[in-house]
Amino acid sequence: MSCVQLQGHLADLFDVGSGVPQEDFLSPILFTTFIDDLSEEVKAANAGVIIGREQLHDIVKNSPNVDKAQQQLDILSRCCHGWDMKNNARKSQV
Question: Can you give the pLDDT at residue 30?
């Protein structure tokens, strides 16, 4: 259960079907674990870009060619699916 607080007033409680609330102590742990899994997938596929400290949106930008970029996006999609996460392609432009 969760609720929204605005100007000191709490809204009615509602169910949260998925996700981690912002600023939850688990957020950085889960993100790091996801990035580690994604990094291992990229390495195992010999996909060319080790994530390390790079931001996720920079992976495809640094790809040497279109095929490698698509391979990386496919890996990201599979990892997100495995973690029950959704990609928001509308936030990205090519």
Answer: 85
Tokens matching residue 35:
């990035």
**pLDDT by residue (tens digit) across 13-67?**
888 777 777 778 888 888 888 888 888 887 787 776 555 565 454 555 666 678 8
- The answer to whether 35 and 51 have CB atoms below 8 angstroms apart is yes
Give domain limits for the chain. 21-85
Beta bridge partners of 9: 6
Q: How far is CA 18 from CA 1, 59, 81, in A?
A: 11, 26, 13
The b-or-e profile of 70-94 (16+ CB within 10 A means b, else e) is ebbbebbeebeeeeeeeeeeeeeee
